[in-house]
Design goal:
Largest sheet: 2 strands, parallel
Oligomer: single chain
Helix content: 25-40%
Radius of gyration: 14 Å
Number of domains: 1
Strand content: 5-15%
Shape: elongated
Order of helices and strands: EHEHH
């Protein structure tokens, strides 16, 4: 019996330093432009903020805007 398959899309992009709105807008555009069958989208580490030395300024709980997005 063959193993089940999953369709994965990997997105690599230039992140805007500490600019959540711009990063989320750019990634949303890229995700919505995927035309191939996709069941899982893999994003870069720190995709919403880029690496930062100011985590207290950028942190969110599980009800924050990044998790709340749905397309």
């Amino acid at each position: 019996m063959p193993a089940p398959t999953i369709s994965i899309t990997i997105i690599q992009t230039d992140l805007k330093w500490e600019d959540k709105k711009a990063n989320l807008r750019d990634l949303e555009e890229k995700i919505l432009s995927v035309r191939e069958k996709t069941e899982l989208v893999v994003l870069p580490e720190m995709f919403s903020t880029g690496f930062s030395m100011n985590p207290e300024k950028l942190a969110e709980d599980m009800n924050g805007p990044t998790v709340a997005l749905d397309a």
